[in-house]
């Protein structure tokens, strides 16, 4: 490790790499458990809070519009989402998660997500310090 003071961007890049690269086993397990691709699970997650247009959903899920349309079409065929006319603007359609969609999303989110070996290997003092720092920066 360097003795130089790291920039917030350097620390953030390291933190996101550690988390993103260690989540692959969880993603695979969630896909296996639900039979849905991870992009479909991501779409359902974004719809938990409120209905969205396909354009809003594409932005929220970091997907392009054509891929989002394909995902919504498949999820609609499976009964996990519905499209309805927006009551405030009849030219738009809103995508809403259904009860079945919430159930399959709950199944995905209930997939065990154990800490990676690198975190398990940390001593208790380091875990406590890391937890306390993360709690301070959590939004």
Textual characterization of the structure:
- Keywords: DNA-binding, Transcription, Transcription regulation.
- By secondary structure, the chain is mostly helical.
- The chain has a domain at 24-112: Winged helix-like DNA-binding domain superfamily/Winged helix DNA-binding domain (Arc Repressor Mutant, subunit A, Orthogonal Bundle).
- 61% of the residues lie in helices and 11% in strands.
- The chain is built from eight helices and two strands.
- Strands 1-2 form a two-stranded antiparallel ribbon.
- Helix 4 packs across helix 5 (65-77).
- The two termini are 28 Å apart.
Average per-residue pLDDT, rounded, comes to 93
What would you call the shape? elongated
Strand content bin? 5-15%
Structural class by helix and strand composition: mainly alpha
> Which range best describes the helical content: under 10%, 10-25%, 25-40%, 40-55%, 55-70% or over 70%?
55-70%
């Amino acid at each position: 490790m360097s003795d130089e003071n790291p920039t917030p961007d350097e620390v953030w890049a390291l933190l996101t790499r550690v988390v993103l690269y260690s989540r692959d086993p969880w993603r695979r397990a969630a896909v296996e458990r639900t039979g849905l691709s991870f992009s479909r699970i991501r779409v359902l997650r974004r719809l938990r809070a409120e209905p969205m247009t396909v354009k809003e959903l594409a932005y929220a899920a970091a997907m392009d519009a054509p891929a989002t349309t394909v995902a919504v079409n498949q999820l609609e065929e499976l009964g996990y989402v519905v499209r309805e006319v927006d009551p405030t603007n009849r030219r738009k359609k809103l995508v809403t998660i259904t009860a079945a969609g919430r159930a399959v999303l709950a199944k995905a989110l209930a997939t065990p997500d154990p800490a990676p070996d690198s975190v398990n290997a940390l001593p208790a003092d380091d875990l406590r310090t890391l937890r306390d720092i993360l709690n301070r920066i959590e939004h």
